[in-house]
Specification:
Layout (H helix, E strand, L loop, with lengths): L3 H15 L4 E6 L10 H8 L4 E7 L2 E6 L4 E5 L5 E5 L9 E7 L4 E5 L6 E5 L2 H7 L4 E2 L7 H8 L7 H6 L4 E2 L3 H10 L13 H20 L30 E5 L2 E5 L7
Bound molecules: zinc ion.
């Protein structure tokens, strides 16, 4: 499922391929994914315009149009972007297809349809309406802000608190496991039981893991050998001590962790 690092990679991809080109045509292959806007309205808002910049908040990608409005994309469980020229390169489940005047296309593919497509005038209003916390990599999401937001989830498990988009935006099931592994904290530990130095370490690892993942273009095969993400599977073993990883359901999601290395 695309989380903050994946969506940041999509944002850079959109920047590298699709900015400042006139949008000739927009097609929807699934109008059910539109949120808060009709197909014809979104089509007329995009056609004839071009994307002039991008932004991201948590797992949401924003692409700014010349008009000042922003196309909003959420990638659900399976979403991704693909820029291509010839039809045979078109991905199989594209829900939105933008065709530029240079003959290239940008497809938003989302097989399981759990993402969303929208249009907003103001990103701040959108973030407020969705009740999203600060973006996990935003400069103003500092240690003080991290502690403050976690203090609202004292009784929940630390993994649930990291994944709660109202507390901080961008972290999901996979990256919360990595952050907790690097911080040597068990996913089910209660927030209220974490010591001051554990909170500080958790915060450092949160920023470090997300930044490193973006540097690795969110591709697990490029991750450092000390990372747990490439081992998150039934028979996976700990990259530090080789013990078989434990799997446990937390907030309905499968957490993977090492009972020896994560003692906090
Ligand atoms: Zn271990």
């Amino acid at each position: 499922m695309p989380e903050l690092p994946d969506v940041e990679v999509f944002r850079k991809y959109l920047n590298a391929t699709s900015l400042h080109q006139k949008i000739r045509e927009v097609k929807f292959h699934d109008r059910g994914m539109l949120k808060g806007i009709s197909g014809p309205k979104l089509k007329s808002a995009l056609e004839g315009q071009s994307f002039r910049s991008t932004d991201r908040h948590g797992k949401y990608l924003f692409a700014e149009l010349e008009s000042g409005s922003w196309l909003v994309l959420h990638f659900g469980m399976t979403g991704f972007l693909k820029y291509f020229k010839h039809k045979d390169k078109e991905p199989p489940h594209d829900r939105l297809l933008v065709t530029f005047s240079n003959g290239y296309h940008l497809a938003y593919d989302c097989q399981r349809k759990l993402g969303e497509i929208g249009l907003v005038d103001d990103r701040e209003v959108f973030v407020t309406e969705r009740d999203l916390g600060l973006d996990a990599l935003a400069p103003d999401f500092n240690l003080a802000a991290f502690k403050k937001t976690l203090s609202r989830s004292k009784r929940s498990s630390v993994k649930s608190a990291l994944m709660n988009q109202k507390r901080m935006a961008g972290i999901g099931n996979v990256y919360s496991d990595e952050i907790l592994f690097q911080a040597e904290i068990r996913p089910e530990s209660r927030v209220k039981n974490l010591a001051e130095e554990q909170l500080e370490k958790l915060f450092r690892e949160l920023k470090g893991v997300l930044r490193r993942a973006i540097q690795c273009r969110a591709q697990p095969e490029r991750f450092p050998r000390s990372y747990i993400i490439p081992h998150r599977r039934g028979d996976g073993t700990c990259p530090s001590c080789s013990r078989r990883l434990e799997r446990k359901k937390i907030s309905g999601r499968s957490a993977y962790y090492c009972t020896r290395c994560q003692s906090g």
